[in-house]
Amino acid sequence: MTFRSPHVTVFPDARTAASVVAARLAAALRERPALVLGLPTGRTPVALYAELVKLTAATGLDWSSVTTFNLDEFVGLEGTHPGSYRQFMDAHLFRHVDIPDGRINFLQGTAVDTEQECQRYEHAIMAAGGIDIQIAGIGTNGHIGFNEPGPALQSRTHRAILREETRRGNAALFGGDPAQVPAEALSMGMATILQARAVILLAHGSSKAGCIERAVNGPLTTDLPASFLQLHHDVDIVLDAAAATELKIG
Ligand code: PGA
């Protein structure tokens, strides 16, 4: 456990940050082969997954008892859709490690009853014994998963309406066209995320500098969902130099 939380570490570049977090995850996995991981998608974790794949190939990391829960998925997309987060995870991580398919947990974007699907996910996390380490990125608007800024947050896994900036941020998965990005998603809630035993938040680049400063030092506010990480006793915020430029470290 870190003494002060959120605990912020700044590395000169994103690649170094990724390799340090990958080494931490590899150590956790060796110590506890049945590790339960919460995982994000987006540009941010790409280098981390690449490092993990490299470490796995080089050192024979055993993923056969690991369980994963991804943070979110688009409503209406099958896991086979090229824009789905499931496809992203297959491409960047799952295909390259020996994790059994049955241990990979994803919200089903095509569920007929999305409310029931969200409850199923909460129960599955509980049945797995809870998440040991939740990795997360942060949106420029301060979202985590698809917990978008607004007058109120839903604490548990829920169906969310995506903001325009979030759809723009995901356009690359849909041929560069934000209009093709689904308007809704299923997402773990902030309470779901905060129940993980440890949280590692990654952020790179100057576009994240403002929201990182507010998440670490600003007031708790639903206008910046990441600010709720201040309530957790074991949060590591891992930044490159550009994402730390507005940070006032007291
Ligand atoms: P990014 O997205 O990693 O592509 O910047 C992060 C997020 O929106 O959570």
Fold and architecture overview:
By secondary structure, the protein is an alpha/beta fold. It has 7 helices and 10 strands. The protein has helices at residues 14-31, 46-59, 85-92, 114-127, 164-169, 190-194, 209-217, and strands at 7-11, 36-39, 67-70, 72-74, 104-105, 133-136, 158-161, 184-187, 198-203, 235-240. The chain has a 7-stranded parallel sheet with strand order 1-10-9-6-2-3-5. A 3-stranded antiparallel sheet has the order 4-8-7. Helix 2 (46-59) links the parallel strand 2 (36-39) and strand 3. Helix 1 (14-31) packs across helix 2. The mean pLDDT is 96. Bound molecules: 2-phosphoglycolic acid. 2-phosphoglycolic acid binds at residues 42-44, 137-139, 169.
Ordered list of secondary-structure elements with their pairings:
Layout: E1 7-11, H1 14-31, E2 36-39, H2 46-59, E3 67-70, E4 72-74, H3 85-92, E5 104-105, H4 114-127, E6 133-136, E7 158-161, H5 164-169, E8 184-187, H6 190-194, E9 198-203, H7 209-217, E10 235-240
Parallel strand pairs: 1-10, 2-3, 2-6, 3-5, 6-9, 9-10
Antiparallel strand pairs: 4-8, 7-8
Helix pairs in contact: 1-2
2-phosphoglycolic acid binds at residues 42-44, 137-139, 169.
